[in-house]
Amino acid sequence: MHAMQYEITLPADHDMRAVHRRIATKGPLLDSWPGLGLKAYLVRERGLDGSPVNQYAPFYLWRTTEGLNAFLLGPGFRTLCADFGRPAVRHWIGAGLRRGPAADGPGADGSAAAGPTLPGPVAATRLTERLPEDADPAEAVERALAELPDHPDLHTAAVALDPARWELLRIALWRAAAPAGVPGTRYRVHHLSSPELDRLPVGRHW
What we know:
206 residues; alpha+beta; 8-stranded antiparallel barrel; 4 helices; 11 strands; 18% helix; 33% strand; globular
């Protein structure tokens, strides 16, 4: 599993309805993308949820590097670069995954299974942590996995590691507003593409 995110910060007076329309139009294009575990279309809006900025910051969990490469080198990302400029793309090695109660049930993985479909996530939290020089990375990852939230509204949570910066990432998607006290940057989720979420292994990834 590979985690990936880029952040496009927009002017304070930017009409975020244009971003919402873009997501509504282009979001479903990745609903069946090969090799994609999930793409959460994350948005921050100035003045909401404590955000000081307007930002489009989609987050990805890739099942295969082939899917990741096909996206970054393909026409969809090329169009985004033409519209906003080419963003720096952060990349982390997946270390673990938890599927929450809000991701269980028929159709919750994005499939066409019969039966009622649970509501998709509407919020996300992301926390990054630079590991001290004397920290053991394996112990830090184990601790982060043990601390992944266990909450009725949890959809999906993951831990990933950037070994260039020795930075630990924790991401959680929520069916309702993120519970009070959960640390990290808060986003709203405007669409979720999850074509191969059910094929990502849960638990520790080593």
